[in-house]
Every structure is written in C-alpha cells, then in structure tokens.
Amino acid sequence: MNQTIETILSHRSIRKFTEQAIPQEVLATLIDCARAASSSSNIQCVSVIRITDAKKRELLSEYAGGQGYVASAAEFLVFCADFNRHQQIKPDSRLGFMEQTLIGAVDSALMAQNCLLAAESLGLGGVYIGGLRNNPDKVCELLNLPENVFPMFGMCLGYPDQDPALKPRLPADLILHTDNYQPLDAEKLAEYDATMREYYDIRTGGKLDQSWSDQIKAILSKEARPFIQGSLNKQGFAKK
C-alpha cells in the first residue's frame, strides 16, 4: 500500500459540499493532472468547460435530472469529446467515424479520472454527472458547442460535507478472467447481491431493499436514452 493506492481504494462519490472555494492554483493543478492522462495516438481530443455562470449551473442541474449539487458544488466541469479543434487544423479532416466517437469517450474518461483522483488526493471530493446526456441537445446549445464537440459528462468538485460509506464493488473473481471469458459464477454473484442489499439497507435506513442484480434488471429493462444516437449525429459523431 502507498498513498496513491489508498486514495484510489478510498473513492466515494461526494454529492454534498461545503461552501469553501477551491483555490485557483489547486484547480490549475487538477487540470494539469487531467492533461497528463494517456491519449489515443496523442490525438488529445478532449476539451473541458468550467461552468462559473450561476444561471447555467442551474440549467445544467435541471437538464441532468434535478441534481442540485451541479449548482452547489464549488466547481463544475463538463468533459467534451472535441474534434472541432482538429478540423480547424485540417479543414478537410475525415470525421464522424464510430472509432473517433469511442476515442473521444475513452480519452474524456481518462482525463476526468486523473482529475478526480488528483482532487481526492488533495482532500476534495466529487461525482460524475452522466445525467447531462439526458438532454444533450440543450447542453450543446447552452454551452455553444460547435459541430464535432459533444458533452460526455460533467463533474462536481468541492470540499466534502459528508462522509458516505464505501460502496461495495463486484469482487475480482467476477471481473478478472484468465486467457478466455469465464461463465458467470452464480454463487459469487449471490454473495455480492447480499452485500449490496445490506449496504443499501444501512445507507437508506431500511428504506431500500435491493440487490445489485435487482438494480441491473431495473436499468436494463428499459431503453437507455434512445435519442442519444441522433444527438451524437447532430454534433458530427457516430455517423459511420
């Protein structure tokens, strides 16, 4: 164990923050850490938009499904896949390919995770806001995103005003495969389901009786953002 590993293993999503501002030099360091992330072919196809306008924060909170911490966090960042910059360098760039969409999503996630881990190492907390994809067209309009730029997710950052318990993750036995894909171990899954049921019972004071499998069944029983392909296409992504 070392400090880096301890920080990684201590990750919790923080949704309640104090009113303390994040010093500008700290924010600059977090952006530098994000910039240091790996990038596919060094294409560096990510832009980060810092939202300081209170009205825009309120609207983004609404667009994300009423997540109030989008408005109340000390900082709110929007991570965007960005090939507009590349098109300005090479106006006849061949864009719109699905592979570029995947690269934009992967690179955005890598940069954001660097940023969040660096923040947590400095005593900050944060949470990802994938809910921006509930209304991607409105987000694009609000942030004046040009073609070939797409908002992948947001991130709240601030000094924690809560100390939530660690959420149990799937055991390594269920995610680590050797040499080839292994069938799902029903016994291990049942053990994890029991752990998650206990976690939710404690977290909600007995108001939620749900296993991980129950959660997955509920999520995957409905169509997930059926409009997202159209929104991606509108911004120039995933066309071919």
TrEMBL record:
The keyword NADP applies. Keywords: Flavoprotein, FMN, NADP, Oxidoreductase. InterPro entries: Flavin_OxRdtase_Frp (IPR016446), Nitroreductase (IPR029479), Nitroreductase-like (IPR000415). Pfam families: Nitroreductase. GO terms for molecular function: oxidoreductase activity. SUPFAM superfamilies: FMN-dependent nitroreductase-like. Residues 8-159 form the Nitroreductase domain. Belongs to the flavin oxidoreductase frp family. NCBIfam families: PRK10765.1. PANTHER family: OXYGEN-INSENSITIVE NADPH NITROREDUCTASE. This is Nitroreductase A.
